Each structure stands twice: as C-alpha cells, then as structure tokens.
C-alpha cells in the first residue's frame, strides 16, 4: 500500500476552446499517479477533461470524491478553465465544457454550488488550485461571445476564489489577481501556473532534504516566487488560511536518496487530538453593515492575538452595530520564515494582497470598516491601504496600529540578535524606505481616524519606530509590553478605554500617563521634576519611572542613591530586576554600551537582594540574565559560566518545574556547552509556554548559541531545534 494511501485528488481540465487546460490537468494526473514521482494511489484520483468536465460531470466528480475521503485524508482540487461573473446577479461561476451562453443559468457551475460541495468534504487538509483567467493567446474564442453584456469573462479571479472559500481553513491558490491573466510562455505546453506547480511537485525547489515529501507551504512559496519572476504581469493570489501544513506529495524517487535521515523532524501538522476549530469570525450577521478587523502579526496566535478584546467589545452595547473578524496567517502553519514577531517582505506582500482582496469581496457587505492591527500586522495594513481603490478606502472609519515598527528595525538589533534573518525590516532597507515613501505619497491627510499606539515597556519595537513617520497628533502611548498591550484582562483595562474613546465622538488624544510617554519619547527632565521631590513616597511603578529618567539624564549615582534609600529596595529584588530588564531590552534594541552596563548593574543588585532573602526563584532569574549579559554585552565567558552555574544550583532548590525554571535550565546548559541537556529542558518548557514566552526564550537561546558557536547556519542541528520548537 502506498504511504500516501489517504491522499486524494479531483483534477478538472475543461477543454473546449482551451486545449491547454486538458494538458494541464493531465500533466498533474501523470505526476500524482506515478509511484516514482508523487505516489498517489490511482483509485484516489478523479480526472475530468473535455466531455467529462460538464456541469453534471463536475458535480458528480465532487460527490464521488466526498464518498471516498474521511477526516484523515488530504485533498487536492485542481481546476483549469474559464471562470465568469454575471453582474446583474453578482454571480461568480465556473464554465464547464457544456456551458451554453444562452442558457447560462442552467449550464454554469455557481460558486455557491462549489462551496456547498467543498463543505461536505470531511477533511481540513484541502488545497484548491484555481487557474481560471486565461490569456487571450491560450484561447480560440471568448466566453459568452453570443450574449450581449450579460455573461462576461472573469476579470476578478480573487472574487471567485473568495466565493468558493468555505471559511474553515481550506487553502486556495489562484493563478492570478484582478485584471491579470494566466499565461503560457513561448515554447511551453502548460500554463505558467501549472508549470510551476509541476516543478514543485517534482522537487525542483528543494535545496535541503530533511524529509521525502512536498508540503503545502513549499508549494505556496515556490509558486508565489517563480510565477512573477517569469511573468511580472502575473501574480498569484492565495487566501492564506491554511489549517495544516500537510503533505501534498512525495518527492521523485531519484531525490529520495538525498534525504537526511538524521535531520531533526519538524512538527508541521496540527495535533489531531486537539482538532481546534478555525476561528474566522468572532461575530458575523447577515444584516450588519459595520465590521472591525483584528489584523494580527506573524507570531502564531491567530484569532487569539488580541486576547479577550473582541469578546469585551461584543459585550459592550456601544459596539452592537459591529461585526468582528480576526485576520492574518492561520495559527496552524508558519509563514515563509517561521512564526515570529517579524516577517519578510514577501510574507507582508502576500498578506497585504489578501487583505485588499478581502476588503473588496469578502467584506463587501460592510459600509463601514475599522482596522486594528498589531506588530507587523500594521505593516500589512499600510501596504494594503496604499493600493486600495478610493471607492473602498472611503469606507474605512478607523485604522489603529499597535506596536507596529513603521520606521523599521535598527540594523544592530537584526545583526546581534537575529543575524539579519529579518533583514527586510531594516530601517534603511528597501522595503521600509519604499513603504514610507509610498505611504507619504498616498496620504497627505487621512480619510479615516488614524492612530499609532506604542507600549511603555515594548521589548521589541522602539517608540521611535512606532511614532517616527507620523505627526504627533496621531500618536498614543499605553501601558504594557509588546504583547500585553492588546490583551486586556478586563473591560476596564487601558486599551479598552482607548478603543472606546477612539470609536466615540469625544476621542481623547492622551490615553496613558503623560509620564510614561515622556519616558519613551525622551522627555526625561519632566519626569524627574514631577517625581524627584517625593521620591521616597513613590510606589514601585513611580520609582521605576524616576530611576529610569535619572539614568537617561546621566544621573546614575542619584538613581542608585534614591533606590538604596527607598523602602522597597531593602527587600524587593523584583524592583531591581524590573529595572535591569528595562535596560536589557533597551540594549537589545539599540546596543548602546551604557544600557548594557545599566542592565548588568541592576541585575547584580537584584541578585544580592535575592541571595540575602534566600529566594531561589529570584536568584536563578537574575543569575541567568547576568549570564546572558556577560556574554552578549561583555563577551566574558568566565563570568557567563559562573552565573550559569549559580542559576543551576538555585534551580535545584526549587521543588516545582515551572515554565521559567525549565527555561532557565535550558538556557544555563547552553552556556555550559551541554546542548543535549539544554534541548531536553527546552522541550519541556515549550509545552507550558505561550507565544510571548516562546519568543523570550528563543531570543536569548538563539543569540547565546550563535555567539558562542560563531554560526547562524540554519542547517545547524541546534538552530533547527530552536526554530522548530519556538517558531513553528
């Protein structure tokens, strides 16, 4: 029995005036059925061409497929032929072989009929390749030539794709976008889209061979790259709502011998025991005319990225008119570089295309749309709005960007922490500078309420990057970290108050404490003037703010003096640790020596207090941070080793295997060169960790390992382990 006994396919090449469509479907069939190539069982493939690709034949083909598969199956749908759009009925459809333009309403295959059939396919491992907008050079005639201004050749393939989309995680890849055509290059027998699909099924894209399969993510990446490389006028479209990075085919037999059997296996598919539902809407009603889109970044949380915010808004009568939707890459599959806070320009471009298309088609019932975006999701929004047509742009009411690196990331951050893995986000790079120039040209004034919001304790994105490209009246500051800023714990949290006020007529321009904004925008003297006279009366938050401002003004001795006299400093190592963490994050963003030294100083003081109080958890927390700083800031391997051993010894005194104990053990063993032990502890830690904690662990582990081993080779086994467990 074939290892791909659960792989099924329905391949349709309509023929008629498009003989190439038959060649396309047949070519895919020949690859799939060949045991030396893709390796599908012959009985699992349904091929419909020419007279078998009639309306009745297509619908029966779906019924036959539905009867064969179960929830463990993977399903490949392939359609090559014409698509159409009947404007009076706002009707998208496929054009079967027996289509009659004079009796179109009884001979077409409506998008709704396709969606109904797809809904009956009892598997979420489903990909639909749609090649439905062929160039004139491929045809012998025009669709609907005998009908006057009724049935027209399809000009919006993304619209057809979205009408077919079942909204449950099916992947759709269309050959081209609005007002584009699907081309055949000179000398080829297949369409360019199908040619690239054939190449990827034959493993032509493979550079490393860690497994003997071709997965959906590889197909997307290859086709998105190669089609426009060869024909710039043609850019594929995808819905990007991939439920599972499942196996589409084998690689050919001659390539299987190249597979590295010792490579670290990557977890690419959804855990079957969980079977999570794909959340595509928080609230959707047929009569609603206003919608809020929550555009998340690339961190991998999907619909959970904004925490309870959508639920709190739905419980609020002031938001009764609004439907609410999550938007972005599915949480069940990684973008091109793996799930992360960052992404490359290609990922952003794909998602921006998808957003623009959804605004036109999927969300067309809404006359008023608000967009809330987080992190790199904000770059996606900006890219999409630059090209959005005026007739739809006018329907946007609000655009709020939270923690978005609109001015990019400093090269030092990319070099030292990620070794330029995300170089497309370099502040001086082509993507960011181009985005800024295009945005400025398109928007001298905004036709929507526009705000960019930074978090006081954002550990990844500087306020300069959030605020820099925009006028001050569009900037706001709120409490929290990069992730917590958009995850309210109650209806009364600051971010909820901010959203409420911005959606109301009396929107305020200052949501958070002015002191916090002064801190992140460099107005340190104002903070000192307010807080220094009453320094000994301050609570923990006020004390942190004052000390930070004093440090920035070069008054480190005064800061230490105030801390040493403050009641909290006598017994609260957490105060010192928080300050140490603040300077550590600042150092990792800007790599200023003074910040690294300040972080080290506060962590040392915190460690002294923790040891005096015999608090084992505080001891290993501060010790492991000092090990990291000893390596990254000072390249002092002796101190790094000493602090790592101290952290390990303190972990032994903690009877509970908490997340941060396991993470500390994993990191400490990196410093001691015990990579197998490190791997074991990280494997246990990652089970307990959410996306924020995973990124925190990954940042330290990746930076430490690459500096110690002097390599950032993605094929390095330990780097592969980190990427697989923390980014995928």
UniProtKB/TrEMBL annotation:
GO terms for molecular function: cysteine-type endopeptidase activity. InterPro entries: AB_hydrolase_fold, Caspase-like_dom_sf, Caspase-related_regulators, Pept_C14_caspase, TPR-like_helical_dom_sf, TPR-S. Pfam families: Peptidase_C14 (PF00656), TPR-S (PF20308). Residues 8-238 form the Peptidase C14 caspase domain. It comes from the Bacteria. One of its GO terms (biological process) is proteolysis. SUPFAM superfamilies: alpha/beta-Hydrolases, Caspase-like, TPR-like. This is Peptidase C14 caspase domain-containing protein. It comes from Leeuwenhoekiella nanhaiensis.
